[in-house]
Specification:
With 693 residues, this protein is α+β, with helices and mostly antiparallel strands. The chain has 21 helices and 23 strands.
């Protein structure tokens, strides 16, 4: 079995997409059921040694592995294949230095279909494209089926103009209007005639993009109506140096311009249709990226690949139609723990953020969450410094230095010799900034860094991160902590093992909110009464008698307590009752008495759990008093012998009627309600409390 790829990947989108196909498709025999290809843009290296960036080299290695493990029949090169001025001829050494010496994997020895970018057009663009025209058509058949795929390759620079000709980097119209019109007419005719189930269009400029360059007005005006009218499956492009997926009007828009360096700018996010952006990745320190596309009889799967990126999926769709998707949660916590497990000695949170393609603060939050679980991980805060481009530096990296822009502004018919002091220039400023942008600032000598810093094109940034290692209780799986009570927690009971003859006081008493000095804590605190007393109590209950006016309790008398009181009891039985239901019933009960300020407090009452006490605020006394002595949810085991079933739950409570009366009528001393000193006029004047239905 072949070893697994050293990266995880993101399946971004699935589209459900002669009668000719390249001979490479025959290599797997009759078992082939799909067409597979790679899409890569903006991979053009550097115009001076070493002629390639670290990101381009990494991307090339990953493309080779992807082609080997996932399969690839050809490559779509989406423009800006040779920075910054293309190539001069078919013998230009850049073909070897930037292309052949970089994309060396045998699995990439497959056809490369090329469209030109704005930088390619500065040089000899026909030297790159071995066709009589700058735009052409590719047709393929999915093996073993009648399903066809058409790819229409556009020269968007020929159609819209060169963005490098303008200071703001936006094309302002074609250099040859007749050629642009001819290409547009060709495109419309081919789309109208296409019977392919999967109709793709590829070019360099993006139609929709949130990146530095943003939407291309020319394509929005001329190409967008055709894509919608002829129900194209997708438009694939580069130009913006990141990975994006957008969807609008049933058409997918794939931006794969991350072959040479990355940009995280989303400055044009408000210029794309609302809700169209489904995915974006462009961290400047990440390792580039590209797209792998597989077309089967029923669907087209677009997979963005980037080294060490965790996988998620967006699923579902139909041929040349809109599609349903659901992003799968990758789990930053689990990804972080897996990374810590694989790397001996620990990992840096900043590196993990780059590898996972998320903001560093997301990783910091994950570290804090794991720390709250105990010693799962150990995290030591550290500080490090690195160089970043300023806003002006980023603009120069994209468009060239101010000197180069002035030089490029010279018209083709030239200027007087007195105004033109050199015949050509090498934009070393931009080259240095691109090294920083590509995460290779270490290749700059200190003199270069200081010069760029002095020009305010470069700044040194101090980043605080965490060095994360395994803790004593390290595990790659995290048990989700409960954050809220559920009915199952509140109203369900589990019998404890009966063979535990010794149990800790915590479970026996503290967990039941039993006071420290409660008599029930002492197993020897048992009282015995004579048979005579027992018979007299029994007779009073069965036959009646004399004695206390109500319930008697040995209480210390004060403003809110008497030794005797009248008691109200209530019981509610139903299926699925919880303690919350009991709290609601009590709240309604007291509200109808005019008492609205209530508090519920957990309490211990023998043989009932859970139990609680109810307190109400007394405005006259300015304190909370207890009108309800005992409220509890009774489990089925308490009354199974009476009812013969175990499914119903009972809520019960006991109220003392005098304290609610005090609160209702604003009485501050309970003795004003009982005894020979009661103010009878107050009794006559106070209306009877009614419980409204």
């Amino acid at each position: 079995m072949a070893p697994p790829l050293p990266y995880l990947f993101l399946v971004l989108h699935i589209f459900p997409i002669i009668v000719c196909f390249p001979s490479s498709l025959l290599g797997d025999g009759c078992n082939r059921t799909s067409i597979r290809f790679l899409a890569l843009g903006d991979w053009g290296g550097l115009p001076r040694a070493p002629y390639s960036t670290h990101i381009e080299q990494t991307t090339a290695r990953e493309m080779g592995l992807a082609a080997q493990e996932m399969g690839a029949d050809f490559v779509l090169a989406l423009g800006d294949n040779f920075y910054f001025k293309g190539v001069r001829s078919v013998d230009d050494p850049r073909f070897q230095e930037t292309f052949e010496h970089v994309f060396t994997a045998p699995s990439l020895n497959i056809p490369w279909y090329v469209v030109a970018g704005n930088h390619d057009h500065i040089g000899n663009v026909t030297a790159q494209i071995a066709y009589s025209r700058h735009y052409y058509e590719l047709n393929f058949a999915v093996p073993g089926s009648g399903v066809t795929v058409t790819v229409l390759m556009l020269d968007t620079i020929l159609l819209c103009g060169n963005s490098d000709d303008q200071a703001d980097g936006q094309p302002r119209g074609p250099a040859n209007a007749l050629a642009a019109t001819s290409q547009l007419q060709w495109l419309q005719s081919r789309m109208a005639a296409s019977k392919a189930r999967f109709l793709l269009v590829a070019g360099h400029y993006p139609l929709w993009s949130v990146g530095v360059h943003g939407p291309t007005a020319c394509l929005v005006k001329d190409l967008h109506p055709l894509l919608v009218k002829y129900r194209a499956t997708a438009y694939i492009c580069g130009h913006d140096h990141n990975l994006q997926y957008l969807e609008e009007s049933g058409v997918g828009y794939v931006v794969s311009g991350a072959g040479n360096f990355m940009s995280d700018s989303t400055r044009h996010q408000k210029k794309v249709p609302p809700g169209s952006l489904k995915f974006f990745r462009g961290h400047p320190l990440s390792q580039g990226g590209f797209a792998h596309i597989e077309v089967t009889e029923e669907q087209m799967v677009v997979t963005f690949l980037q080294r060490h990126i965790p996988s998620s999926a967006l699923n579902g769709s139909k041929p040349r139609r809109t599609s349903d998707r659901s992003m799968a949660d990758t789990g930053v916590l689990e990804s972080l723990l897996q990374r810590v497990e694989k790397v001996d000695g620990g990992v840096d949170s900043q590196d993990v953020a780059v590898i996972l393609g998320v903001d560093h603060q997301v990783i910091v939050g994950a570290v804090k969450s794991l720390q709250s679980l105990g010693d799962v991980i150990e995290a030591e805060q550290r500080s490090s410094k690195h160089w970043e481009l300023t806003a002006e530096g980023g603009e120069i990296a994209e468009k060239g230095s101010h000197e180069a822009q002035v030089f490029n502004a010279i018209p083709e018919d030239g200027l007087p010799q007195s105004q033109l002091m050199v015949e050509s220039i090498e934009d070393t400023v931009r080259d240095k900034l691109l090294l920083v942008k590509g995460g290779q600032s270490s290749q700059l000598v200190e003199k270069d860094r200081n010069e760029l810093k002095k020009r305010k094109l470069l700044t040194e940034v101090t980043v605080k991160s965490y060095w994360i290692t395994k803790g004593g209780s390290f595990s790659t799986t995290i048990t989700k902590q409960e954050t809220e009570l559920t009915p199952e927690m509140i109203a369900r009971f589990t019998e404890m093992p009966t063979n535990n003859f010794i149990e800790s006081s915590f479970w026996n008493f503290d967990s039941l909110f039993q006071p420290q000095q409660h008599p029930a804590r002492d197993q020897h605190d048992t009282f015995f009464i004579s048979g005579d007393y027992l018979e007299r109590v029994k007779k009073v209950h069965s036959e009646g008698g004399y004695g206390s006016q109500g319930v008697f309790r040995n209480e210390t008398l004060d403003a809110t307590h008497l030794a005797e009181f009248h008691q109200i009891e209530g019981v509610v039985a139903d299926y699925g009752l919880t303690l919350g239901d009991l709290m609601g019933i009590l709240h309604q009960f007291f509200t109808k008495l005019g008492i609205t300020k209530l508090r519920f407090k957990p309490a211990f009452n023998p043989y009932t759990e859970p139990s609680m006490e109810v307190f109400s605020y007394h405005e006259g006394l300015k304190k909370w008093v207890e009108p309800s002595h005992n409220t509890q949810a009774l489990r089925a085991a308490h009354y199974i012998s009476l009812e013969g079933e175990t499914k119903r739950v009972k809520d019960g409570w006991i109220e003392e009627e005098r304290k609610p009366t005090m609160i209702k009528y604003g009485i501050n001393n309970i003795r004003e309600l009982v005894g020979h000193k009661v103010n009878l006029q107050m009794v006559y004047d106070s209306p009877i409390c009614r419980l409204d239905s």
